[in-house]
Amino acid sequence: MNIETMIGELLALIIMALALGMDAFSVGLGMGLIRLKFKQIFYIGVTIGVFHIWMPLVGMLIGRVLSDKFGTIATLLGGGLLILLGVQMVLSSFSKDEKPLITPVGMGLIVFALSVSLDSFSVGLSLGIYGAKTFLTVLIFGIVSMILTWCGLLVGKRVQTWLGSYSEALGGSILLAFGVKLIFPF
């Protein structure tokens, strides 16, 4: 394999990682609109990065064995989870409690990370069928999604101070819209 082919494959993987990580950025932007501490932002980014490593890894391993029929199911599950998170955030913004119904800690963080990384599972299925380099692929996906999540959360945190009490409703609306877009691509 010559150097030009290797650079071309690396560039393709980086572009794919950016495309997959943009949903983590968008969802991070919405989630950043709730009150988060910098420590939470760090852990959220790392968790999403880890999920963007193991979800395509599992997808690649299964993709080498099975067809890509599961890609649609993964996308629908991810969209459904984002819709659920979005609805909960919007409803929480109208309640008298200061605490949102779901927060990105503990099980809420797992659900959040799973919802934004399910699309990388379906991409992993395709890459597994194609025979992509596993370690390099999942490493790039994880690092890029972690960085983009941090960026989205930090921008959301900054904007949250400007929007006040409406920030959680806006964040939930972003998650809801992104979930609908996953289920009904238009």
TrEMBL record:
Any Pfam family: Mntp
Compartment annotation: Cell membrane
Membrane topology (UniProt): Multi-pass membrane protein
Regions that span the bilayer: 12-34, 41-66, 72-94, 106-129, 135-156, 163-184
Principal location class: membrane
Source organism, top-level taxon: Bacteria
Protein name: Putative manganese efflux pump MntP
